[in-house]
Every structure is written in C-alpha cells, then in structure tokens.
Amino acid sequence: MQEAIIRAVLAQKDVLAVLPTGGGKSICFQVPALMMDGICLVISPLIALMKDQVENLKQRGILALSIHSGMPFHEVRKTLQNAAFGNYKFLYVSPERLETKLFLEYLPAIKPCLIAVDESHCISQWGYDFRPPYLRIADLREYLPSVPVIALTASATQAVQDDICLKLQFRENQECYRQSFNRPNLSYHVIDPVSKQTKLLELLNKIKGSSIVYCKSRKQTVHIAQLLQMHGISADHYHAGLDPQTRANKQEAWKNNQVRVMVSTNAFGMGIDKPDVRSVIHYALPDCLENYYQEAGRAGRDGKKSYAILLTDGNDIKDLEAKPDIRYPDPETIKKFYLSLMNHLQVPAGIGEGQSFSFDIQAFSEAFSWTSQQAHHGLQALAQEGLISLNDAYAQPARLVFSCSRSDLFTLEDMYPDLEPVIKGLLRSYEGIFDYPAILQEKKLARFIGVTPEELQTKLKKLHQLGIVSYQPQNNEPGIFLLQNRMYESAFRMDYAAYLERKKKFTERARQMILYVQNKTECRAMFIARYFTDPDAVPCGVCDNCLAAKTGQTKLNDTDVAEIREILKKALTGKRLPAKELLALWDEDQHGKAWKVIEYLLTEEIIVAGQDGCLQWVKDR
Fold this sequence. Notes:
α22 packs antiparallel against α25 (591-603) and α23 (558-572) crosses α25. The chain has 25 helices and 22 strands. The protein has 5 domains: 2-178, P-loop containing nucleotide triphosphate hydrolases (Rossmann fold); 186-312, P-loop containing nucleotide triphosphate hydrolases (Rossmann fold); 320-374 and 479-506, no CATH class; 399-472; 552-617. By secondary structure, the protein is of the alpha/beta class. Helices cover 45% and strands 15% of the residues.
C-alpha cells in the first residue's frame, strides 16, 4: 500500500496508515516529503526512535534534525534555526515540544510541507498507549491549516483508528489505508510448559538464528540472559535502566549478529530494522494484543519462516486479571499519591506550572512508602490526567564552570599535580569556561586528556570538592514537568469518568489477551486479525491451533512415522511441492497423520517451506 499512501499524501489529503510492524511506515512519509517543497515535521514519542531514523536518513545523504526534551535551550534554538533557514528535509520533534514559545516562534519560518504523526495510536485515550502530549498536535492545524497530516500506527483497533482521525481533525478528503494483519510466514504458538526455563532453552536450541526474549522485569532480563549464557547460547540483556551508551552498544552488537539473543523488557525493539529475527519469545504475558502483535511482529521481516511463541502459566493469567486494579487505583489513592509527589518536589500550593524536576522514583517511593509499581502507575495516571508530563530520558548533560580565578590555577596546579592535565584539557577544549557553564562531552575530553571516562569523572568530582570548579554530572534520571499549579488538597480534581472509562478499556484489552492464551481451536492469526477488525484475514495454517486441527491430534506409532517419512522423502527429493499436492498421496483419513509428520520434519528442518508455501526435502538424519 506504500505507493497508494504516497500518492494520497502528494494529493494533499489527510491519511491514516495502519501498517503492521515491519510494514515500511517510514517510507510513506519520507518519500512524499522528498518530492515536496519544504520540510517534513515528524512527531515521534521516543528519543531512541528519533535518533535512529535521523541517523538512517543522514547515512543516505538526507539532511535531518531532531528536537527532544533532553536537549538544552541553546541546542534547541540552534536546531530550529537550522530547520528554518537551512536545507533540511526532516525535523523530528517530541510532542512535548510543540507548544513551547520557542517552537511556535520559529514555526512560520520553518514552513512545514507535511506533518507525520508516528505511533499515532498514542493520541487516543481509549488506546493501549495513551500519551496526553499527543493531544496538542491538533493545535498545529490552527497555524498550518492547509498542510496535510499523515498518521501512522502498527496496531490500532477500529475504535482507536476512528479516534485518531477525530483527534487530529482530519479533513473531509481524508483517506484510510489498512494493510492486512496477516503475516503468512509467522507461526504463532502458545505453550504452557512444566518449566519455562527448560522450554526456552529447548526452543532456542531448535530454532536457530537471531531472537528476542521478552521478560516482565529488568531483574528477569539479567537472570534469563545469564541462564542462556551458562548453556552456551550467546545472549545479552537490555532494559531502560541502562545508560544510553550501553543500550546503544548492546543494540548494535545484536543487530550485527555479535549477540544472538537479546533478553529484554518491552523497552527494546521499537524502530529497530533487523529483518532476520527468526523467533520472538515472550517469557511473560503482555498486557494486551496490541503490544503482543507489535512485539511478535519483529520476527520474520525478511519473509522467511519465523516463530512468535508465548510461554505462559496459570500465574500469568491471575496476574493479568488483577492488573486493572493495580494499574488504575481508586481515585482517593490517586489524590494521596499526588500530594505525596508535590511534597517530595517541595512545590507550594498555587504555584509550580512550567517547572521541571529531576526525579528519582526509588528515593520517592521509599520516602513516602509507595511500592515501585504503585509509584509507576501513579505517575502514569497523573500524566494521563494532564497534571504532569514525564520525560523517560531526562539526560541532562554534564556542565562545568570554573569557580576560582585564573591566577589561582597556577598555585592549585602545583598543589595537585595529578589534576593538572584535566585543568589544561578543560581550558583548551572549552572557550569561556571561566564565565559560563560549558556542556561537557566527557568521552571526547577523556580521549583528549588520555584517561578513561570514569577516571575523568573522578577527577572532575575532586576539582568540584576542592572548589576549583562547579561540576554538575550528567543526570540520566527521569524528569517531571508540571503542567498545572499544585492544587490545594481540598480543591483536588480530576476527570474521574474518563479515568474509569480508561480502566474499563484496559480491563477489556486484558480479557482479550487472556482469551488469546486460552484459545485452543481458532487460528491464532485469525484471532488477532478479528481483534483488529481485519476483514481480509484467512487461517494461517501454521500456528499451533491450525497444525493441531490438521493433524486431528492423531497418535502415531513408529511404523506410521517411518512409512510417511519415506513417502515424503521420495516425493520431495529434488522437487518442490505444495502441501495440498503432498496430502493427495494419502487417503483423506490419513491426512492427520501425514500433517503431524510434516510438522515434525519442518521443526527439525529436514524439510523447509518456501515463501510460496512449497515444501522441499533438504537433509536427512
């Protein structure tokens, strides 16, 4: 559908494009933007995703910029100036930046030719990943009434699709494109094993190639990665608590096949273009089918046979059934949490709007006796209510300014000779560092001085303690931005009706996820497609339920297996045949047995299936 979508955008129409994970959504706005005069404004919720796309464009010789909430003021201004007066084609912006005075000041000079809203399901409070800042996007239409908007998402129900068009104020000439949710090369399986660990090892030993294993917690990612390493499987762990450089290094190693298995929380995978992932294994049950479909869809983007496997047990289902009450606590608890947060941030009643704070969720939780889970969901509730804005990658860069005079430095260098190289390195690298705080590029400075980044930080902290410099280390803690003044306790208010409706929608999504797991008869691909209101879906023929239906759960003895195997080998050696033609070799009442042997031989890779569904014998053992 890419060409049709591109033509609709070039015709100045508002477009909704619902394309599956790996469906090539970026092409749908990048190509028309390159054919139009002006710059394309891309609104994206994730800093990592922005950086990845900007880097990919630059590698293709296309000039692109990004503005996100972790950037200092002067960098934002410089980026906006480049967008307005430079020869750039793409400006990636986080939704929080859209209403800032600085952005609106430069918007007329930027003159966007197209607005692309990535992950557009975030605009719907009935969706699974509602983000209030997305609601501000529609305000751009007041300033840019004739500029077309393209909204893109991989997973949205019909109700959410309709809400996206409504919230973005699509014009009457709008067009909607929905690609089928069928992935014919992806085999869905749900397994209830005696031991998840044993089954995971078995699966990764059977299904060769690159893999992602999704876990429910940071601690679990470390534990499972260590387990795999102990059994000789190349694995690493990934989660949002790692520093940005470590995450980037791990991601790069996995993309380049230096690491075979990435064990991760759902923080991993968004925007990663790796086509040869052979399996995505969920070690924990996702909250909803939207998340599961998007994460599972990272397997098999090259069109080759791949597996989406969900390992589950009774405890997973019980935990998910209890989750709505945990995720959406009662209104009185939300009020109590809000007051705790304001007291922690030391914000007096009646003020605070526009202030931002670095925030250590662990310290806050311990100080006010909230569990980490309660704190996380409390923050989400306040953000969805529009009281605060959360910045998951605060990343305040390191800053330094000299506190002493230039004349004092000679004495200090004699007193602390081990610090002399650092002092000279700072003076040679940053002009005006005596007058204004400089933003440090610590790794570059460490290389210049000839020390490790860790050694540099130690020496900078010592200079700070001695009063020679004022040093503010980089802050990777999450940040909080207050969107409203602190309310008095007696005047606390929120839209409880909308809050309870969101809880109801979440409960229904969880119920559908549980039904997917418990479903033992319907084709799994059909179940997913029906959830997303895809009328064109057909049975996949390769999920666990389809395979079970074909085999009729027929029991086989050794003689049956040997006879069927020999017939298959004779028929498929040196030839490629469709399964339907193969089954014609037996009477209809034997089809179940034949299918069971075919499934076994496919799993053992003795026969392989091509993209056209034809089978071929490739090895014997």
